[in-house]
Design brief:
CATH architecture of the largest domain: Orthogonal Bundle
Shape: elongated
Radius of gyration: 19 Å
Strand content: under 5%
Helix content: 55-70%
CATH superfamily of the largest domain: Hypothetical protein, domain 2
Distance between the termini: 20 Å
CATH class of the largest domain: Mainly Alpha
Number of helices: 12
Largest sheet: none
Length: about 210
């Protein structure tokens, strides 16, 4: 029996909710969520956590980061990788927010995308995790899993976001990224996915193809 995508999504989300608790940023301050998300680009969560903790321990506010020396910022966020680029971006973003937005992080996609170093994934993370607005941040896990399962057939994260918005009921948007990231780190891994532990294997196109061979 073929299960239609809306029903598949509801089942998938129910199964992932059983496996994982929703993780949230301990500090939902929009500025800190934004900076943390910029630091998280192309690095592991534990590296992001360490870099963010060291940064905000020394420079806790937007104003502090804006006037901090480039050299000091580089040392504080070094663990996040690409530290020269990221330190430059967070300093620039801080100054732009102070100069052009009265120190307030915007809560719309269009305005967030105007900030340097902010792409759609970062903007969507801010919308979801700081403002609790329905959006679908698509990182490598969400892109991979959505295509593996067969919810979408896309080549890049932006296309995945567009297609997921068409097929995923809006009520699931806020949860989707967090649950899929945990699932992708734990079971649906890039290499060596744990099919024997997967609660949604019977809904997965990738697994069905493996079973045929």
């Amino acid at each position: 029996m073929v299960v239609k995508i809306p029903e598949r999504i509801e089942t998938i989300m129910d199964e992932l909710r059983v496996l994982y608790n929703l993780r949230t940023f301990e500090d939902k301050d929009p500025y800190r969520v934004l900076i943390r998300t910029i630091l998280s680009q192309r690095t592991r969560d534990e590296n992001t956590d360490q870099a963010s903790a060291e940064l905000f321990a020394e420079y806790p506010t937007m104003e502090d980061v804006a006037i901090a020396s480039q050299e000091r910022l580089e040392k504080l966020v070094k663990k996040a990788g690409f530290f020269r680029v990221k330190s430059k971006r967070i300093k620039e973003v801080s100054n732009i927010l102070l100069d052009e937005y009265e120190g307030i992080v915007p809560d719309t996609m269009d305005e967030l995308l105007k900030l340097p170093g902010v792409g759609r994934k970062t903007a969507n993370c801010v919308l979801v995790y700081a403002f609790e607005k329905p959006a679908i941040p698509v990182d490598t896990h969400v892109h991979r899993i959505s295509n593996r399962i067969g919810l979408v057939n896309t080549k890049d994260p932006d296309a995945t976001e567009r297609e997921l918005e068409k097929v995923v009921p809006k009520e699931f948007w806020i949860e989707l990224n967090d649950l899929m990231v945990q699932f992708g780190q734990d079971i649906c891994r890039p290499i060596g996915p744990k099919h024997e532990e997967c609660p949604i294997a019977d809904l997965c196109d990738f697994y069905k193809e493996i079973q045929k061979n």
